[in-house]
Amino acid sequence: MSSPCDILCVGAAHWDVIGRSPWRIAAGGDVPGDVARSPGGVALNIALSLAGAGLRPGLLCAVGGDADGDALLDAAATAGVDVAHVCRMPGRATDRYVAIEDPDGLVAAISDAATLEAAAGAVLAPLESGGGLAGWRGPLIADGNLPAGILGRLLRTEAGAAGDVRLVPASPAKAARLRGLLGHPRLTIYGNLAEARAVTGTAPDDSTTAARALCAMGFVRAVITDGPRPAADASRDSLATLAPRAVAVRRVTGAGDCFIAAHVAATLQGATPGEALAHALAQSAGFVAAAQ
Predict the structure, then answer these.
(1) What architecture (CATH level 2) is domain 7-289?
(2) pTM attached to this predicted model
């Protein structure tokens, strides 16, 4: 079938509420700072960045039937994301993510993904038989906020079984659920070192060791970051590594999603592993150094 989309992003879309302070925060601390609300969620963050890079991403997610859901989808559509196939959940509130950041980075966060989890397989209905995207072919990005069973179901759709699928753990706590998806012939994984450790069940010391371990498990490609230390892009027959440039960090929430979107966009445009890694690191450095 024809589609206006270049790529589909499947997973979390919610409102981020982020408190940032220039003061370091100890447990129980009460400090001055700024609080801002913005569109968030791994799948939506990546889709927004892809749209900013000139691609035409489609979004498969679940949002509540509330005013927050209306506003979230309006913001995504205005930015160039196709939201025609988003699952609306009447009677439920749109999901939220609350985080606290200080000069050292993320202090703590809570993700309320109750509506996404309640929607379950309804998020995938457009890709299944009779759905509006049932004949769609192209790359998919899926995030680990989706329950493990739904991730497996995604890979059993025609689009998922035959496609270029890129997985994003979403957090170390959710990363282990990706282990059950191995066996797919074209599965790429993105993540940070902590997430890679959770997926492998081991404790690699650096991104290169982690990326190689993930490829040995069965991923065709693994792209792993490690904060200010070198990142790695490994496949079964190649390896690229590069250290990010040092910047003054002003925000961290969404930086990994920015990196992933930039890397995906570069690879879809034919960049080599080294070129894609350099581009993604440059984009994410600019993101963390910028005020929201």
Answers:
(1) 3-Layer(aba) Sandwich (3.40)
(2) 0.95
